UniProtKB/TrEMBL annotation:
SUPFAM superfamilies per UniProt: Histone H3 K4-specific methyltransferase SET7/9 N-terminal domain (SSF82185)
Organism: Cyclobacterium lianum
Protein name per its UniProtKB record: Antitoxin component YwqK of the YwqJK toxin-antitoxin module
UniProt entry keywords in alphabetical sequence: Signal
Keyword flag Signal: yes
Signal listed as a keyword: yes
Amino acid sequence: MRKYLALLPALVWISVGQGQAQEEESISDPDSSGVVNNRLLPTSTPVLLFSDAEDDLKEEKKSKKKKRKKNVYFGERTKKTLIKSSFRDQVTYQVFHFTLTKKEPDPYIRDIYWYDSKNKAVKKSGYNPSRGYLLHGPYERRIGEQVVETGMYYYGTKHGRWMTFDGKNILQDKRHYDEGWPKDSRITYYNRGERKIEKLTPIEYELEEGNFYHFYPDGQVAVTGEYSYGEKVGLWTEYWPTETEKTVKKREIQYQSEAFTNGYKPYIRAEWDKEGNLIYRHN
């Protein structure tokens, strides 16, 4: 009896250790659960998409006629700054505005532009509110004294008209955006009158470019993925329709990491059941 009692602490320790090991394995295994905890993942269709940009620009033009408060854009106070960089004999200036308001980026938009105050750089991915600020207001890029790019930002997204010029001040490109979405983006509806969006396909230069979304009729996300130069790239994810607030992955399909990768064959990376339990993983 004493022998068994002496073994008990060791057995308890082994049991606890195994439990911790299993828990750590579950945490370290990204496929162990299909339940999505990413707070930035859209859980319903975007609201008022493509409806307010022109009105915003009209209001912006009206406000220009009035005496505008200095460094205030779309009702938001901003700070103006300049970044100077040199390469060989060429000096580039970026003049832009940013807001101190900590606003969560739009999860539907792929490119979120922000000012990395520590590294003194403008970036379009990896936004971290503890490291920088969303661009908001007019932007201008110059090479020497020559303006080569102008546009407007709205909480980190390109908004309104953007233009680029060559070294002789000749217009090279003009694009229009609505809070980060290219104006030529294609939308299909389940019910256009009720604005029930089925698919959002970003289009630039008549090619798919950017984040793609497919929604269920009730607004839940059905598929997310990315296009580059008209081709599917990266990881595309399908989701189960649910009656709860949880978002559960159904299948992940891996496409080429870059467009025009010859000979690449897409494959199913993993699958989950409706409860989020892993049922298949590609080896």
